From TrEMBL, chain A:
Membrane topology: Multi-pass membrane protein
Membrane-crossing segments per the record: 52-72, 116-135
Family: Belongs to the DAD/OST2 family.
Name of the featured protein: Dolichyl-diphosphooligosaccharide--protein glycosyltransferase subunit OST2
Quaternary structure note: Component of the oligosaccharyltransferase (OST) complex.
Pfam families per UniProt: DAD
Source organism: Phanerochaete carnosa (strain HHB-10118-sp)
Pathway: Protein modification; protein glycosylation
Places the protein is found: Endoplasmic reticulum membrane
Chain segments carrying region Disordered: 1-24
Automatic annotation (TrEMBL), chain B:
Classification via PROSITE patterns: PROKAR_LIPOPROTEIN
BP GO terms, sorted: protein N-linked glycosylation via asparagine
Membrane topology, record value: Single-pass type I membrane protein
Subunit structure: Component of the oligosaccharyltransferase (OST) complex.
Subcellular location: Endoplasmic reticulum membrane; Membrane
Lineage summary: Eukaryota, Fungi, Dikarya, Basidiomycota, Agaricomycotina
Function: Subunit of the oligosaccharyl transferase (OST) complex that catalyzes the initial transfer of a defined glycan (Glc(3)Man(9)GlcNAc(2) in eukaryotes) from the lipid carrier dolichol-pyrophosphate to an asparagine residue within an Asn-X-Ser/Thr consensus motif in nascent polypeptide chains, the first step in protein N-glycosylation. N-glycosylation occurs cotranslationally and the complex associates with the Sec61 complex at the channel-forming translocon complex that mediates protein translocation across the endoplasmic reticulum (ER).
Pfam families from the UniProt entry: OST48_MD (PF23358), OST48_N (PF03345)
GO cellular component, one term: oligosaccharyltransferase complex
First and last residue of the signal peptide: 1-23
Name of this protein: Dolichyl-diphosphooligosaccharide--protein glycosyltransferase subunit WBP1
Stretches that traverse the bilayer: 407-429
Listed InterPro entries: DDOST_48_kDa_subunit (IPR005013), OST48_MD (IPR055459), OST48_N (IPR055457)
Major localization class: endoplasmic reticulum
TrEMBL record, chain C:
Alphabetized PANTHER family for the sequence: DOLICHYL-DIPHOSPHOOLIGOSACCHARIDE--PROTEIN GLYCOSYLTRANSFERASE SUBUNIT 2, RIBOPHORIN II
Protein name in the entry: Ribophorin II C-terminal domain-containing protein
Superkingdom of origin: Eukaryota
InterPro entries (UniProt xref): Ribophorin_II_C (IPR056790), Swp1 (IPR008814)
Region forming the signal peptide: 1-19
Species name: Phanerochaete carnosa (strain HHB-10118-sp) (White-rot fungus)
Lineage: Eukaryota, Fungi, Dikarya, Basidiomycota, Agaricomycotina
GO cellular component, one term: oligosaccharyltransferase complex
Example of a GO biological process term: protein N-linked glycosylation
Domain Ribophorin II C-terminal: 187-285
Membrane topology, record value: Multi-pass membrane protein
Length: 136, 443, 290
């Protein structure tokens, strides 16, 4: 199993230098595509689940911000609560991802993935409590 | 026999029920040169109304007006035009102190001497001519001397009864500086003037009086012969230019046109105003509360709708009671914090006698406000009422909620919650294939 | 006793039958301009029907009156005699405001009298004539003559329009004795809300967009959820859902005290179920490693 994964891991490193030398938009598109391909191949489904959730939160936050700027910010507390819930949840989820990511095992020797998830859940519930308090 | 006596006594008691709103004991200080009986029409009129009169000579010091800082009488009448000095308890300072204690005064000025009452009159914005210059009028041609003047009373006066016949007057007129506390009761006729000459040879002196530096000529209808002063303490002080207006002789004298003079009725009107019988008002009750509530609150919130209600009574001297009075059409309420933020009309409520009410919206500034009613009109008691009430911004749970503008935010927060729940479910349910794909050693 | 003496003395002091009626002769008035040029000269008639037209004075004009005071015996053909009456006044009266001014006239022993009113140096007793609209209010000018020995006489002369002057001084408290102008408070304008349609549309976008993206991404991910309904995991999931539902209910309807109480109860359940769930997961993870 080990040689395969290392071979798989080696592949991107040899192919990227040649890709980086090209500067045309097609090359940029190429870079993005290869980035996505590499992402797809290297991340586990569980991490992809977290990433999907992160994207969801980011879009929700951006949309609420755009509404506030374009239409009205009148119940400002409501805007802060809604936007804050997205941002706060994003932060918690990102920290869960970094704690659960096997590549970071060395940094988080004391924190098991279950412990990380427990922290994440507690943090989220407290965040939502404050959000609903402030939402008005 | 016994029954008749009881009925008579009862009748006397009932007739003597018309009293002043502040009490019915009157001290009359009479000059020893004046005969008490010569004014019996006036005294009897007062006694019939229910006052109890105590007479005292101007030289006596007893009965004292004030004892141990307490006023002993409700009203004091000083008819002492011939005495330059009065006892200690009737000096100008003592009389002013009496007004502070709520005692009403009826004072007669002197045309011959500079009495202490004349000096006191200048404190009340009255300007007297020099001593020895009584009022003179050559109009209309009549049998009496020029110093006895028939004076037509004013039309539509708030204090005097309507349709009063002309009044005989003898004494000193006075000018007055514009002072809203002063209510002129009788103005001199336009042709009258003050002069000390008694024959036509004094014509030059009259003209020279006008050139004299100072006040010049006292003439015309801008002079008053009787004026009432409503002090800010609520007591009333009336200055009359001469005592003869109250005498029996003038009350029974016929006017040049042939009618009987109005002196008797005029004297009673003046006395009833001075002794707080007529035009006496008071505030019974002041209430404030939010619309749709009945109890006042400790604090009000900005933009509240508040109802302010006031009950006012007027004294009815015939029945000796305070009756609700709805006749004030121009009362105003001020809602003030340092400066009036709102000034609005406090109008009488139809159907509720004596009740005045207004509903208004509290300004959107917070602070300590006062409901101020300060109703002052010439000749009427001052109505003053101040109620302090704090106004606070809305509490944290009094703001409007569930607004349509915030729907996206509500939806956003809820969708985050739902997403979290979904994510947790998927995460907890998922298969933790840790060592499979990446194969990184977890040592 | 005193009373009778008083009555007697007043009777004695009563006037004798007045000798004659005061009257005027050769009465005329003139208005002179600032440069002493005669602007108007008219006689004054004693009959009220012939009242002259209103007199208008400019700021530098002068009004002059000249007349002779005489007595006329009743039922007698004797010549009227010039006399100096006790009182000869000119009265200026403003009917609208009730202000009045009296100026005495110096009459010689022979009865000749001259009166001058110079607007350059007006007497202080003139009533104030403030401007009302375009003009000042007219003053009624009349002549009053009274004497101890003769019947009095009064004559209304004409209406007088004076140049505008300062209004009569008012006591500083005077305006509090009349109704004062009303004061309204201008409130901050209400917050304007955007139309419900716009807000509703935005809400749909905010909920729809991200969910569409999320579901799309999740469909790409090869997820497997074998333990979804496992009895050790499910209670935890359910209690987390319950907590979130409680929080939503708190926003809609509850008070702080209530939500903390319920939250403590549900939280306890969550903690217990969470412990079991996560322990189980830990076991599986370590087993899976083997």
């Amino acid at each position: 199993m080990a040689p395969k994964s290392t071979a798989a891991a080696k592949q991107p490193t040899t192919s990227t230098p040649s890709a980086l030398h090209e500067t045309s938009p097609a090359a940029a598109g190429n870079a993005v595509q290869s980035l996505l391909k590499a992402y797809n191949e290297t991340t586990s489904p569980r991490l992809k689940l977290i990433d999907a959730f992160l994207v969801f939160l980011m879009i929700a936050g951006v949309l609420q911000f755009v509404y506030c700027v374009l239409v009205t910010n009148f119940p400002f507390n409501a805007f802060l609560a809604g936007f804050g819930s997205c941002v706060g949840q994003f932060v918690l989820t990102a920290s869960l991802r970094s704690q659960v990511n096997p590549a970071n095992r060395n940094e988080f020797k004391d924190v098991s993935p279950e412990r990380a998830f427990a922290d994440f859940a507690l943090g989220s519930v407290v965040l939502h409590f404050f959000v609903y308090n402030f939402l008005g | 026999m016994f029954f008749k006596r009881v009925v008579a006594l009862l009748g006397l008691v009932l007739a003597a029920c018309a009293r002043s709103s502040t009490g019915d004991s009157v001290l009359v200080v009479l000059d020893s040169s004046l005969d008490k009986e010569a004014y019996s029409v006036f005294w009897d009129g007062l006694v019939d109304k229910g006052y109890s009169l105590t007479f005292r000579s101007h030289k006596d010091a007893r009965p004292a007006v004030v004892e141990d800082e307490v006023a002993q009488f409700n009203h004091v009448v000083v008819f002492a035009p011939d005495s330059k000095n009065l006892p200690q308890d009737l000096t100008p300072q003592s009389l002013v102190a009496l007004l502070d204690k709520g005692t009403n005064l009826l004072l007669a000025l002197s045309s011959k001497k500079q009495t202490t009452i004349n000096t006191l009159a200048s404190e009340f914005s009255l300007v007297l001519p020099p001593p020895g210059t009584p009022l003179i009028s050559h109009f209309p041609a009549r049998d009496t001397p020029a110093t006895v003047v028939p004076v037509p009373p004013p039309h539509a006066h708030p204090v005097l009864t309507a349709g009063l016949p002309p009044v005989w007057f003898s004494g000193v007129p006075f000018a007055y500086t514009p002072n809203p506390l002063l209510l002129p009761l009788l103005n001199a006729p336009a042709e009258a003037f003050a002069a000390d000459t008694t024959s036509d040879a004094g014509a030059d002196a009259v003209v020279e009086a006008a050139d004299r530096a100072g006040e010049g000529l006292w003439a015309g209808s801008s002079l008053a012969l009787a004026a009432g002063f409503q002090a800010t303490t609520g007591a009333r002080a009336t200055f009359v230019g001469g005592v003869e207006m109250f005498s029996n002789e003038f009350a029974q004298k016929e006017l040049p046109q042939g009618k009987l003079s109005g002196n008797k009725q005029f004297a009673q009107d003046v006395a009833s105003w001075s002794f707080q019988e007529s035009n006496a008002l008071r505030i019974d009750k002041v209430k404030h509360h939010r619309v749709n509530e009945t109890e006042p609150r400790e604090t009000y919130t900005i933009n509240d709708n508040v109802v302010f209600t006031m009950h006012v009574s007027k004294f009815n001297s015939n029945k000796d009671t305070w009756e609700p009075y709805s006749g004030i059409q121009d009362m105003q309420l001020e809602f003030t914090m340092l400066d009036p933020h709102i000034r609005t009309a406090l109008s009488p409520v139809p159907g509720q006698p004596g009740e005045y009410s207004v509903t208004f919206r509290v300004p959107d500034r917070h602070g300590v406000f006062k409901f101020i009613v300060d109703h002052k009109r010439k000749g009427w008691t001052h109505l003053q009422s101040t109620t302090v009430v704090p106004v606070v911004p809305p509490q944290h749970d009094e703001y409007p909620r569930f607004l349509s503008a915030a729907w996206p935010y509500y939806i956003g927060a809820m969708s985050t919650s739902v997403g979290f729940v979904l994510f947790s479910a998927l995460w907890l349910a998922g298969d933790d294939r840790e060592g499979k794909k990446k194969g990184i050693k977890t040592e | 006793m005193k009373l009778s003496l008083l009555v007697l003395s007043s009777l004695l002091a009563a006037r004798e039958t007045l000798a004659g009626q005061l009257s005027l002769q050769q009465a005329r008035f003139s208005v002179l301009g600032g440069d002493v040029s005669p602007l108007r000269q008219e006689p004054i008639s004693l009959s009220p029907a012939n009242e002259p037209d209103p007199v208008r004075l400019g700021p530098s004009d002068t009004l002059k009156l000249a007349f002779t005071v005489v007595t006329k015996e009743q039922d007698s053909d004797a010549e009227p005699k010039g006399v100096q009456p006790h009182q000869t006044f000119v009265r200026f009266f403003d009917k609208q405001s009730g202000e009045e001014g009296i100026v005495p006239v110096r009459v010689a022993q022979s009865g000749k009298a001259k009166f001058e009113l110079s607007m350059a140096r007006p007497p202080s007793s003139l009533p104030p004539t403030p401007l009302q609209g375009n003009e000042t209010a007219p003053l009624t000018v009349s002549l009053l003559m009274g004497s101890f020995d003769h019947s009095p006489y009064s004559l209304q002369l004409f209406d007088l329009y004076l140049p505008p002057s300062q209004p009569a001084p008012e006591h500083p408290d005077e305006k509090t004795f009349h109704p004062q102008p009303e004061i309204q408070h201008t409130f901050r304008p209400e917050q304007k809300l955007p139309s419900k349609f716009v807000s509703g549309l935005a809400a749909l976008v905010v909920v729809g967009g991200p969910w569409v993206v999320l579901l799309g991404l999740l469909s790409q991910v090869p997820l497997s959820t074998p333990h979804l309904l496992s009895p050790s995991i499910l209670p935890f999931t359910v209690s987390l859902t319950a907590l979130e539902a409680l929080l939503f209910y708190y926003w809609a309807d509850l008070k702080l005290g209530q939500v903390l109480a319920y939250g403590a109860a549900v939280g306890l359940v969550t903690v217990i179920s969470g412990k079991t769930a996560l322990e189980k997961r830990g076991e599986w993870r370590l087993q899976g490693k083997k």
